[in-house]
Amino acid sequence: MKKQLPIIEVNELLELSENPNLKIFDVRTGPDSKSEFDKKHLKNAVYVDLNSDLAEIDNPKNGGRHPLPKFENFIKTLGKLGIDKDSHVVIYDDKNGANAGARFWWMLKAVGHKNVQVLNGGLQFAENQNYPIASGENYYPKTEYISDYKDWQLPQIWIDDVKNATQDSDAVIVDVRESQRYQGITEPIDLVAGHIPNAKNFPFSDNLDENGLFKSPETLRNLYSELFKQYDKSKITFHCGSGVTACHSLLALDYAGLEIPNLYVGSWSEWSRNEI
Fold it and tell me: Which residues does the UniProt record annotate as the domain Rhodanese (predicted)?
């Protein structure tokens, strides 16, 4: 059986639209994201809130701006959203998966969910391709999600591990933020500009082509293969500002057929608030 790709095309989603197990989720973010969803979203999509459904926000100094929720709380959230183990979950946002679409994908993969994909091109591209649009609120009937696991199943590291990695020539820390934030020229969100010592900059935008679609798996494999050739997977860590956009690059790596490396969820938002 052919392995399911983590990216799904608009025409493929249209073909699935009558599948009773299909569950579509809109994970756009921003202060007006819910009201924008209510005005316009893909037909049958349900809104997911990054701050309350995909994170447990506390003090950014301890875990960053979007720390993961407790595993058991996320499992309850999946049931509340109407997802069970048989659900074919398709996720989109309004930033080509770079907003919170890829974060939700990573979290579902990390609880062992098999059937989850991110929509290539997101909301805008689907609308341009004449995917049916709806308005108003929408919900799926609640379920009970049963996971085979008790904790996250994808690799993560924490701030002390990152500190050690900054001094380890066999490790690489990858910062996926745009180059101006990495260089410390601008910092629109966090308190301090700059980057983690010895981090390399691979902006997430390099995963996309000029149309805002993911580059082909072959192109992405070539883009990242040198990085993966040089370092052991356990020594590769991806991060961003708050552990959300980094998942876009992890998604790209999975799409390319490469192993998913470490995620540092606290990212720059945690690192920059600690005197290290």
Answer: 18-135, 167-276
Counting other chains too, the contacts that 34-39 makes at CB distance below 8 Å and 24 or more residues apart are: 36/94, 38/135, 38/136, 38/137, 39/135
Q: Give the tokens for residue 259.
A: 């192993």
Is 247 catalytic? The answer is no
- pTM for the structure as a whole: 0.96
Q: Which of 78, 240, 244, 251 is labelled catalytic?
A: 240
Structural domains in the chain plus CATH codes: 7-134 (3.40.250.10), 159-271 (3.40.250.10)
Whole-angstrom distance, CA of residue 255 vs CA of residue 187: 30
